[in-house]
């Protein structure tokens, strides 16, 4: 899809990958971007960056754990060409199995339920206007055998399977649903893994792996949006290895 002149929604847009994606969409000529997050100050900063590129920006405070609010918002705003379901959370402390049930529900609703609902309503709107592209932020942990944050890994694996199960929507409705799988990325989410900062296990991960920049992932999102030759359910993993960006492509029918 040609990004120039299109309208988009980016969730988790107040910082990190969401902000970087909004910026790259604006630089490539998107006409209007709806920025969604719970961080008002961050949203305002992102909006200023988007508008500096000549793209209209609107800011929307939306708690993705409130599924009724998510449904209502997307019914009113889902009529766009591009949706980047980027927002996500980590467990923080305490970790599973000591986390309480309310926290478990919160993680699942933000990382999975809201993503599914947003996709559902966006597809319904996009098919009426001839199609569109949806990119879901997953994680390379969905390709592995385990991860210290069990609930984060579980929800990202669910997001990966959901994305692959949406493969047929390209042929049926003209909507390509894709997955972007970031490796380790230096974003504010890392500071929510511990009590008021990075956890010890995250510090270890950082010490033993190279971190991508949010812009590295946003470039991958733009690649997925732009290439209409890609099949629905395809995904792109982005990592940084020995100072260079490494891309791994996958397809809906690929066993991982």
Automatic annotation (TrEMBL):
Keywords for this protein:
Oxidoreductase
**Transmembrane region(s):** none
- Which InterPro entries would you find in this protein's record? NAD(P)-bd_dom_sf, SDR_fam
Q: Which family does it belong to?
A: Belongs to the short-chain dehydrogenases/reductases (SDR) family.
Per its record, how is this protein called by name?
A: SDR family oxidoreductase
What is the species listed in this Swiss-Prot or TrEMBL entry?
A: Sphingopyxis jiangsuensis
């Amino acid at each position: 899809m040609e990004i120039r002149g299109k309208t988009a929604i980016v969730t988790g847009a107040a910082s990190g990958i969401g902000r970087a994606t909004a910026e790259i969409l604006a630089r490539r000529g998107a006409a209007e971007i709806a920025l969604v997050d719970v961080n008002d100050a961050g949203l305002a900063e992102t909006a200023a960056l988007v508008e500096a590129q000549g793209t209209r920006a609107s800011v929307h405070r939306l708690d993705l754990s409130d599924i009724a609010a998510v449904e209502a918002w997307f019914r009113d705003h889902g009529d766009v060409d591009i949706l980047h379901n980027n927002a996500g959370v980590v467990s923080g402390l305490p970790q599973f199995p000591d986390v309480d049930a309310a926290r478990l529900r919160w993680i699942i609703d933000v990382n999975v339920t809201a993503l599914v609902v947003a996709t559902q309503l966006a597809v319904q709107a996009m098919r009426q206007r001839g199609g569109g592209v949806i990119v879901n932020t997953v994680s390379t942990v969905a390709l592995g055998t385990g991860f210290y944050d069990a609930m984060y890994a579980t929800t990202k694996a669910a997001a990966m399977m959901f994305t692959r199960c949406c493969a047929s929507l390209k042929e049926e409705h003209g909507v390509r649903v894709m997955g972007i799988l970031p490796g380790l990325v230096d974003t504010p989410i890392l500071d929510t893994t511990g009590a008021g900062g990075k956890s010890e296990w995250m510090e270890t991960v950082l010490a033993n792996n190279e971190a991508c920049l949010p812009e590295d992932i946003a470039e991958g999102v733009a690649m997925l949006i732009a290439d209409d030759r890609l099949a629905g359910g395809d995904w792109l993993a982005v990592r940084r290895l020995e100072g260079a960006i490494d891309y791994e492509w996958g397809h809906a029918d690929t066993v991982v």
